[in-house]
Amino acid sequence: MRKAGRGKSVGTAWTWAAVAPECWLTLAAQVGNRNLYAARRLLRSVRRCLAKDTWPIFTSDALRHYAHVLLEAFGVWQRPTPTGKRGRPKNPVRIPHPLLGYAQVEKRRKRGRVVAVNRSIVFGSDKDILARAQRLRRANGRKGKINTAYVERHNLTLREENGRLSRKTLAFSKTRRDLQRQLDFWRACANFVRPHRSLRAPAPAGSGPKRWLPRTPAMAAGINHLWTLEDLLKFKHWICQPY
User: Fold this and answer.
1) Please, which residues have CB within 8 angstroms of residue 64's CB and are 6 or more apart in sequence?
2) Residue 102: enclosing H or E segment and its boundaries?
3) Where are the alpha helices (DSSP H) in the chain?
């Protein structure tokens, strides 16, 4: 998450994002404060993007709201075993699903540089989460591991290509609605229109002089073909998240 530009009506805002590292697909991106409400909105958007009975490994920074919201969205209710004693029975409690995996990455900085990286597993067993992370292939073909590098790279690309996030300039957004609209359009272009270099596939033999075939994150996820900007603008419901 990164701060947006400061304006009279928008104040200080944060951009929240969720990225699938296997295919660089941006599942959700929104504008909000750094609080529980914004975390809940983000995770609900991610849950709508997931197929049924899909249990990915979630990784994030050490913000405490993520664990609370993941338990709300992916937890199961458990009724305490009756003790046989007199009195009102205990209320059901929400516990993590056995397949829910969540790890936090906390980076400690000194004078702007990372001096230590602490990884902690919140939901799931250490052995199971590490094994699932290694089986998960990243976009460059390497084995997966617990980190937040992909969403950090996403934030860097977003800031470099989005003038509305530039500080001390006249390009910053004056309202959160305008910033959210621009963020939705940028996310749609990044997912469907713009090919990603690390996702390119070798061209089949006899297909011509081209050695590589361009692929977008949506194509790597098996969602659709390569779109043009005209296809995106003519598509009626390209905005997946209301603002």
Assistant:
1) none
2) strand 101-110
3) 36-49, 65-74, 126-135, 149-161, 176-188, 217-220, 229-234
pLDDT in tens, 96-153: 988 899 999 998 888 888 888 888 999 988 888 888 888 776 656 667 778 888 888 8
Burial call 25-40: b when 16+ CB within 10 Å, e when fewer: bbbbbbbbeeeeebbb
More confident residue, 9 or 11: 11
- The domain locations on the chain are 2-234
Q: What residues form DSSP beta bridges with 60?
A: 104
Are the C-beta atoms of 166 and 179 separated by less than 8 Å?
no
Helix/strand/coil percentages in the chain, nearest 5: 35, 25, 45
Strand partners, 12: none
Q: Which residues face 107 on adjacent strands? A: 117
Please tell me the distance from the alpha carbon of residue 66 to that of residue 45, in angstroms, as a whole number.
14
Rounded to an integer, what distance in angstroms lies between the CA atom of residue 184 and that of residue 49?
15
Of 74, 9, 66, give the one whose Cα is nearest residue 39.
Answer: 66
CB 2 within 8 A of CB 165: yes
For residue 212, the cross-strand partners are 202
Q: Amino acid identity, residue 154?
A: H
Please report, for the chain, how many H helices and E strands are present, in that order.
7, 10
Q: Is 220 exposed, middle or buried (0-12, 13-18, 19+ CB in 10 A)?
A: buried
Q: Tell me how far apart the alpha carbons of residues 154 and 115 are, in angstroms, rounded to a whole number.
A: 22
